[in-house]
Amino acid sequence: MADDERKKLEEEKKRKQAEIERKRAEVRARMEEASKAKKAKKGFMTPERKKKLRLLLRKKAAEELKKEQERKAAERRRIIEERCGKPKLVDDANEGSLKQVCEGYHRRIVDLENKKFDLEKEVEFRDFQISELNSQVNDLRGKFVKPTLKKVSKYENKFAKLQKKAAEFNFRNQLKVVKKKEFTLEEEDKEGPSYLLIF
Fold first, then answer.
1. Distance set, CA 26 to CA 20, 21, 34, 74, 103 (Å)
2. Which pTM was predicted?
3. pLDDT tens-place string over residues 127-149
4. DSSP summary character for residue 182
5. Per the record, a Pfam family (predicted)?
């Protein structure tokens, strides 16, 4: 009897365990379907993928910027070395070798100043030629360059004419002339001024 009860309890436990497992499987299946539906709605670019892509783009841009800076620095060093030459060892040099180094630098400075002067004069001459050609072009075109005309509406022109007429319109000319003497301040002297009466 005790064995039968134990068997029944064990079978009951197994049945409950199987029921729990079956429910868990259903929940997992539902969750997987929901996640698939979300992925299908969102498309290919999920937020995690976007973050990874941004990080990769930033890293690549930083690497390219670093390479570009290194390339520019190397180019700068090469140009400086080409223009200035390698530095001379003057620490344990005697007076004669120092004189030769100074003379070499002096010759180089003179040559560079000559080239600079020639280039400045060439630039001035080209500027002069450009201004001369511009003046010749203007002479061939005509003395003045015609400005482009703007569109003006008809109503603005009419309004401007009316304003001009209103400015010319004199209000005093339109007043009536009154010949009553009641508004005069002084009576006119009929005889005239006294200095005229002497003659």
1. 10, 9, 12, 65, 95
2. 0.34
3. 999 999 998 888 887 766 667 77
4. T
5. Troponin
- Cβ count within 10 A of residue 199: 4
Q: How far is CA 136 from the centre of its chain?
A: 36
- Specify the DSSP class assigned to residue 187: P
- The CB-side HSE value for 35 (13 A sphere, CA atoms) comes to 6
Query: Which of the residues in the chain have pLDDT under 50?
Result: none
- The domains of the chain are located at 10-43, 46-86, 89-139
- Torsion sign (Cα): 31, 32, 36, 42: positive
Longest CA pairwise span in the chain (Å): 175
Select from 76, 73, 96, 92 the least CA-distant residue to 84: 76
The alpha carbon of 188 is separated from its chain's Cα centroid by a whole number of angstroms, namely: 81
CA distance 139 to 134: 9
Q: Round to whole Å and give the CA distance between 24 and 30.
A: 10
Neighbours of 35 (CB within 10 A): 10
How does pLDDT run across 89-120, given as a tens digit for each residue?
777 788 888 898 889 889 989 999 999 999 99
